[in-house]
Every structure is written in structure tokens, then in C-alpha cells.
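We give this protein:

***
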Amino acid sequence: MKPGKLLIVDDEKDIRNLMEEIFSEEGYDVMVAANGQQAQTIWRDMAPDLIFLDIWMPDIDGISLLKEMIEENVLQHSCVIMMSGHGTIETAIEATKLGAYDYLEKPLSLAKLLITAERAMEHLQLHHENRHLKQKLPDQILPVGKSKLIAELRDSIKRLAKYSMPILVKGEPGTGKHRVAEAIHKLSDRKENTFFQIHGADFDDQETLILGEETDTGTSPGELIHATGGTLMISDLEQLSTKGQNFLAQLMFDGAFIRPGSNKKIAVDMRIIALTKGGLEDMAKNNQFREDLLQRLNVMPLDVPSLRQHTEDIPDLIDYFLDYFLTHEGLEYREFDVGAINVLRQYSWPGNYRELQNLIQRLLILGEGEVTDDEIRRALESSKRSEDVSMSGIDTSVNLKQAKERFEAAYLSQLLRETGGNVTETARLSGVERTNLYRKLKALNIDPKNPK
């Protein structure tokens, strides 16, 4: 395990210098702060892994700083170790109850300093791994199938995972572009760091949640700073606003971003993977999408084939989905007869991979015994009728953005009611990563425990 970024907050210069020397020799990237204000700036801009925090300082005490970190969710990504030469057992208990990882008394022991830092980094790594395990990631990282198209796609993913250049993943809705981006991340050197997701259409509404902001009352760090070293995936790139395109250009060309209300560049190291259904070239010609962004992304495009282009893989995909639903959702196994598989292979799959997944899930939930060709035909016809009915009920008196927000609010509220307010389960069922779901619920003003 490699040493991480470390912040030392202490008003005593000799202690700061000594600790900086010790940890630098151990390979840590060390930052120092002499007071609370300096500490706030560093943790908001640099997202340290470990923070050694002195309790007694002239401008603000360490407990108050710890509480500020909690309010800004710093402890989701960092371990705080309190230090004091005048501490009491009550202070130590208060600090650990608030969320501090450990408490050290001065004079500091060199051996204990290093051991505590090492254990804190191990704790932090385990915390990150547990968070990754809880995310909705496919068991099968690479695309499933024996066809030439899918074999070539797997080879491309493995090859691109070795590098850090931006990638543009193209494909129809439901083809699995998101899974391709996840696979590139999971096979890369960045796999232990955050896979951060932004939906193009949501950037403007969630800008301050993602980037943070500078106001007269202080700084909100935002979520992106904690994802440095990881991968940024932007889905539906064609829906990214001008403001969002400018943010992406800063990130891509400068390796930095600027928070709303500030003119200061915040450096981040992120691999960028953008997903699109297409149409960017026409948008660029009509000055709706930045030409320089498109040219940079098009250096390494990756095309994901539609399911109708490789229907010979459907038997393998059926087996994969059966295994997934049996293992993860406890559904009962059903055999697909030859006629059923042939009907599935002859179907055009306008919804691609996602449509097949949803169909198999419904078949397992609603039926039993062998799956026949007649049952497949009825299920496909029923799905088509449901889609026709839902389309006829659309309110066209509102603009597209309002219609989208109404549908998302109704859909997520219904899912939350069905899951009893369980956000993790709602994220799994909706296919929305949990962090993104929290942002979306906040933007739509939905209380998970009391969805209207």
C-alpha cells in the first residue's frame, strides 16, 4: 500500500517541521498548516488522506475544526488523528465519538506516529474497498459474448485501461456504455480510487454539489475534489450545457477546475471517460458543442455495438443474466428452450442489452418452469403495449427539462415507497450509483424517508 497525502495542523513550528521531515522520508505527500484557516483551505483544495490535528490552537480549537470537517463530509474520505499535550480523557472520548480515528498525546513518539499513520491508511483503504463493494458493479467486468465484435470490444477495453488519455464511448441507449466505462476503470491503475459519475443533463443543477462554491461565508469543497486520482465518467455528453462543457475543457486541458464564486484553479488528477448516443459532430457544426473538446475526445473513440449486431451472443447473455438474478436477487432458475432462444435471437432489440436484461428479470419473477417461444412472444408484445400506453400519457404542454424532472421525481418517489425509503435498494433497482442518487434526490427535493 503506497503512502498517501497527509496534512499536519499544529501551531508549533518545531512540531510541524519535525513531523513533515519524518513523514516525507516515509514517502507521504506532506502538507502543513499553522492554524485553522490554513487547514480549511488545504483540506478543501487537496483532499488529504490523513489529517494530524492539534486540539489547542490560537484561532480555533481542533474539536471545532473536526466538527467543520464532519459538516463538509471530509471524514468520508479522510482519517483524522487528534494531538494534544494538554488533553484529558474526556477530550479524547469526545474526539473519537465525533469520528476521529485516533488520539495521540504529546510529546509524540516517533514509532507511534508512524504506526498510527500506517494503520489509519489501512483503515481508509478498507473503507474505500467496502464502499466500492456496495456500489452496483457487474460481477463480470468485461462484456459477455463470443462474437467477433464483443471479442474486439474486450481487447479495446484492456488496451485502453493501460493509459490515461480521455475516451469517448459511443453507442445506442442500453448498449452498456456505462459498463464499458466501469470496466476500463476497474482494469486500470486507478481502480482503487473513486469512479465518479456525472449525468450531462444534470450538471447545471448539481454544479455546486459537485464542484463546491466560494461564498462570503466560506468555502464548500464539493464532491469532485475527493475523486482525484480516480476516473470521471460523464454520461449523455451531448446533453452537457455550455457551462458544463467549459468545466470539462478546464479539466481536460488544464487538469483543474474552478469553483463557482472563485477564480482559483483547483488541480485534480482524473481520467475522463465520456459517453454519448451520438450527434456531437452535428452539434459542433451548429456551435452547440465545443469543437476543441470533440477533437480531443475523438482521438480515442470506442464504439459499443448494438445487440442486433451480435445476436449470436444472446445464449451467453441469457446465462449471464440468469446467474446474476439467481445470485443477487434470489430468483428461481428457469430453463430457456431452443424455440425461446431463437425468438430472442430474431428480435430487433431497440432497447439493446438493457431491454434483454429487463425481459429476463420479468420472466423469472412472473413465470415458472421452462420458458417457451410462446411465452417470449407474449412478453415482448406486453412490453410493447406498455410502452405505447405510457407514451400516450405524456404531457407535452411542458418543456423537455420539466417533463424529465417530473418523470424522475415520480419514478424515484415510487421506488422509495416500494423499498421503504431504502436508498441503497432504490439505487440498485434504478441502476443509478448511490452518490448520484443522493444528488438527484436533493435536486428534486425528495426526502428518502418521506417520498411524496
Summary: The longest strand covers residues 79-84.
